[in-house]
Specification:
The protein has about 110 residues and is an alpha+beta fold. The chain has six helices and three strands, in the order H-H-E-H-H-E-E-H-H. A hairpin with a 5-residue loop joins strand 2 and strand 3. The chain starts with a helix and ends in an 11-residue tail after the last helix.
Length: about 110
């Protein structure tokens, strides 16, 4: 469990993985999907996920160079893990909203 949490540490990491669960993306597509995320943080998270073996970076030839990011098979296996975390959070939020607070979010898939 600690290894998984270490791979996903840092704010925004799970959202980057969530975006990549929908298919490979370019850096600019990820930026558009996560507009409040700074360039530095996105670059850091992609590097962290690549180092953990969750994301692979595919540099395509041409000018300007095109880079696509995709989940590795190991990264795809995080889908059910993130879904379980979302489900738990949604249940906790529903309990909290009955007590007067709650947050609306969207599911992983």
């Amino acid at each position: 469990m600690e290894i998984t949490l270490a791979a996903l540490h840092g704010r925004w990491t799970t959202l980057v993985v969530r975006e990549l669960l929908h298919g490979d993306r370019s850096y600019s597509e990820l930026r558009a999907a996560l507009p409040t995320l700074s360039d530095k943080v996105l670059s850091d998270r992609l590097a962290q996920l690549a180092e953990a073996g969750v994301v692979e970076r595919d540099r395509r030839p041409g000018w300007p160079p095109r880079v696509r990011y995709a989940l590795t098979p190991s990264g795809h296996r995080l889908g059910p893990v993130l879904q379980a975390l979302w489900d738990w959070g949604a249940e906790a939020s529903a309990r909290g909203s009955r007590a007067g607070s709650g947050h609306e979010t969207s599911p992983v898939h």
